[in-house]
Design goal:
Two copies of one chain form a homodimer. In chain A, helix 2 (47-63) crosses helix 3, helix 4 (105-114) packs across helix 5 (127-136) and helix 11 crosses helix 12. Chain A is of the alpha/beta class and 541 residues long. The first copy, chain A, contains 17 helices and 26 strands. In chain A, strands 2-1-11-10-12-13-14-15-16 form a nine-stranded mixed β-sheet, with helices on both faces. The first copy, chain A, has an eight-stranded mixed β-sheet with strand order 7-6-5-3-4-8-9-19, with helices on both faces. In chain A, a hairpin with a 5-residue loop joins strand 20 (419-427) and strand 21. The longest helix of chain A is centred in the N-terminal third of the chain and has 17 residues, at 47-63. The interface between A and B is large, with 72 and 71 residues.
């Protein structure tokens, strides 16, 4: 028999709404209609304008048949259109697939087909890659060109119409459709594919909402921040910040190209208060030339992740007037899932000691329900001794729905009721985690994941190559770069430049090795390459 | 056929957890074990201690048979035990019914029986009322006494054991039970029942969580606030702040008795940064004696609601270094549901104009999905003209599950898919609402509606006035006329003609009171003026 609280106290339209970030934009537009929403050079939008543009986009897509469960892909830099896609696409019931703009044509083609994109919105800058990808997909797809007036470079229009023409035909009063269920998909983000093809990570409206509400709280982000887009929005939907910013009525400052001078200029001229970025962005800021720098005018908050920031860089950047919040996450957990939550008493420590503490990945976000470091096989938590290595596991509402059309990978990722991050780390006595090794073959270069298996696969294709193994080599500017160890076929000879050039012809350029060593490969008795030995050699080069 | 996003992408233990505030306490304890959680005079607890005490409480209650859907009531002031109940009771699956400590014995007895409380936790201070209530309920109930060492007054122990003895028998490692569903009840809060018996408002784990995450964001509350308990925790579960504070690792400063000297002392000695309270608390602060005041040392944030704060009071308190955020809500919407969201450009206005703008109830919280002012019958929104009166309607995730064991009242409250607040107001052209009255408080004089709040706002501007309340007085000619009850500041004197003349200088003449009574104002436990008592007096004049 139901208890007294289970009788006539059900969900109904008055007391229950599916969690979704879309109503946050509607609210920002109705409460702060004239405040700046998105700023991009001479292009400046208010919240009411962004809301109207998103609604027009949604309406125009719906007119073209986009509805529940339909994928719309976008190959865009951090510009207003990219921000608008985060709302206009899911407003239709569709799913937003933001593409990594640095990928090669073959990978883009794979993703467009795997995700079954019906429409592609693409920026002129990426026309060569996109044109080639479109030739490879073997089916017709509606292409919409973004012709950004702030872009002065090359690149032809590929599609049937432009973004501005598209939305001009959309209804500014379009109501959109509420998700049938907050678990419905809102976006699709492909991982770099450490083993084989990239996997499509699916986010829900619920998870996007919880990230949007939770991240400002974690970061003590007040109302009306000015947020600079140094982090690509195609990375985990910009760590959910496109959805978070309307919740705090914050202004997005766009940057097509991230450079030190542009960052300092935005801080000085737009009053930037917050930005996110990989340690490579911290490096840019720290190593800026004298004539690129500008006074900050205020403490500027930086949220950083992707690779552990070196303590020396943390120390230097905080001395300059920035305050760094260190988070850790993956595409599968909506970006940040842990944070090095700061203890006020740590402020009194020596700068380098503070930086050492801050370089740890920390504890679960308040809106993530579980974190542990555990044995990868038995899933028994390791002791909190700061020494015993284990795999990092996460669980809770900031974990993906799963991998699209990949039941096996989804089941494997969720085995035992936890998300298996593949990252290795230790658990300190205070409960803070610290990564000791990314999963053993991934390289993180300038914030981008590079699969060593993918690079090795290309090198293996070179006619003179017998064997190859690729590992990360530490790099001051990029964090890490790929370093290839190559065994040539007997009697063959080759140069470093020849191998690198071959890779650049067959891979996204950032994935090509920066260093090539011709050598025999150390192996285990069962024939597996001992990458840990190669990593040591790469570090010593 | 399911779309590609509906295949093998289901909820599972890795990617879905029922939303609940309980894990927020677990996190605060694991991340900030040694930081102060709750401070009460000489009693000072850390997060790890509060977590252990809450677990012991949950365990001890479970040992006594409390489980899913069982009600545990508490008659407590704002002390550590009250804070712990917010976690220890729902951790068992039970439902927390916090009692208004100023109610009479008959009403307490009604609530204990209507809510079917199995256990009552009660403070010695309320022994006379509780003893009488227990005699009236006609059934046996387990009574646990809180014997607070910070309480020096009278009051006997009524129960079988004390709170400290109870929790001493609880397991500090008690795991509790996760709600089966986030919609499960977490608490039960009775309305004051101005018409007939009080109604039991039921909150869910989901709603409590969303309030806990949403309120700090709305208030720009950073990590580690120091929060003073001037608002009774029995009022809408302290507007969800007992659940919010662990999310931001904030410290609760308890107050058994709220007075001006105690508030200023807490600000000076405990470093209070935030507190909530009805306008009566603002009045206390503004009108404190010289020897009660202490320097603030920082901007102190006040969130106020319950009755519209008069612009004159707002102006004075902000000049003293407090910053007021004005919210509006009801028990049925977890406390605050709207906020007078501040526009930065309003800072440049004259103080009284700023205060006038701030006295509006504003816009929906980011975590509430719908707000409108509409015709109470047709539910058609009224024009946004700042003049047309309508009823305030709310909908979304910050709306109660319903009224316990009262299907008729629940259905009526949710008729048409919106929660009917019963409050009347106007909708300004900028989308901000402003309350004009409870529907029962409105004065209709010669066919014209008169907002008592508007008249009170004018009277508050008179330099000799401390407090004022305006009600309808029956009138043969006009139907009703406004009757003002006024409390003057200490040492002041004024005439009826002086007050009426002042109103006529600042209001449409028909809105000016016809009668002025100089007196103290009767108030509820939460500081609301009891207008029904004043109406009776006005009728008898």
């Amino acid at each position: 028999m139901p208890n007294i609280y289970e009788q006539h106290l059900d969900r109904n339209p008055a007391n229950y709404a599916p969690l979704s970030p879309i109503p946050l934009l509607e609210r920002a537009a109705s409460v702060f209609p004239d405040h700046p929403s998105v700023v991009h050079g001479a292009r400046r939008y208010t919240w009411s304008e962004t809301w109207v543009r998103a609604r027009r986009l949604g309406s125009a897509l719906a007119q073209r048949g986009i509805g529940k469960g339909d994928t719309v892909a976008a190959m865009l830099p951090n510009i207003p259109e990219m921000f608008e896609c985060h709302f206009g696409i899911p407003m239709t019931g569709g799913v937003f697939n933001a593409l990594n703009t640095r990928l090669d044509a073959a990978t883009i083609a794979f993703i467009l087909n795997h995700g079954e994109a019906k429409i592609l919105i693409t920026d002129r800058e990426y026309a060569p890659t996109v044109e080639s990808a479109l030739e490879q997909i073997g089916r017709s797809i509606t292409v919409i060109d973004v012709d950004d007036p702030e872009y002065g470079g090359d690149g032809k229009l590929l599609g049937e119409t432009t973004y501005e023409a598209l939305i001009a035909g959309g209804d500014p009063g379009y109501e959109g459709r509420e998700p049938d269920d907050e678990w419905d998909a809102i976006s699709l983000n492909y991982t770099s594919g450490t083993t084989g093809n990239p996997k499509g990570v699916v986010y829900s409206h619920r998870g996007a909402y919880i990230g949007a509400i939770g991240n400002p709280m974690t970061w003590s982000m007040p109302q009306h921040p000015v947020y600079l887009w140094t982090l690509p929005m195609f990375h985990c939907n910009g760590w959910t910040f496109p959805w978070a910013l309307p919740a705090v009525a914050g202004t997005s400052v766009c940057l097509r190209n991230v450079g030190a001078a542009a960052i300092y200029a935005a801080i000085a001229e737009e009053g930037v208060t917050h930005f996110c970025g990989a340690p490579v962005v911290l490096n840019l800021v720290v190593n800026a030339e004298e004539d690129e720098r500008r006074p900050l005018g205020r403490t500027v908050e930086i949220m950083t992740a992707a690779a552990p920031p070196p303590p020396a860089v943390l120390e230097r950047i905080e001395a300059m007037g920035f305050r760094v919040t260190h988070v850790y996450g993956l595409t599968e957990v909506y970006g940040p899932a842990t944070v090095c939550a700061w203890h006020p008493e740590w402020d009194a420590l020596e700068p380098l000691e503070r930086a050492r503490i801050k370089s740890r990945q920390g504890v679960r976000l308040p809106v993530e329900e579980g974190l542990m470091v555990a044995d990868p096989e038995t899933m028994a938590p390791v002791p909190m001794d700061g020494q015993t290595m284990g795999e990092v596991f996460l669980r809770g509402n900031l974990v993906m729905k799963g991998y699209l059309k990949n039941a096996a990978a989804t089941d494997e990722a969720f085995r035992g009721g936890w998300f298996h991050s593949g990252d290795l780390g230790v658990w300190h006595p205070d409960g803070y985690i610290e990564l000791r090794d990314r999963s053993k073959d991934i390289i993180i270069s300038g914030g981008e994941n590079i699969s060593t298996i993918e690079v090795e696969g290309v090198i293996f294709g070179h006619p003179k190559v017998l064997e190859a193994a690729v590992v990360a080599r530490p790099d001051e500017k990029w964090g890490e770069t790929p370093c290839a160890f190559v065994t040539l076929k007997p009697g063959e000879s080759a140069t470093e430049a020849e191998i690198i050039g071959y890779c650049r012809d067959n891979l996204a350029h950032f994935k090509a090795p920066r260093t090539v060593v011709f050598t025999d490969l150390p192996k285990t008795s069962t024939g597996k390459v001992q990458k840990f030995k190669l990593r040591d050699r790469a570090t010593d080069l």
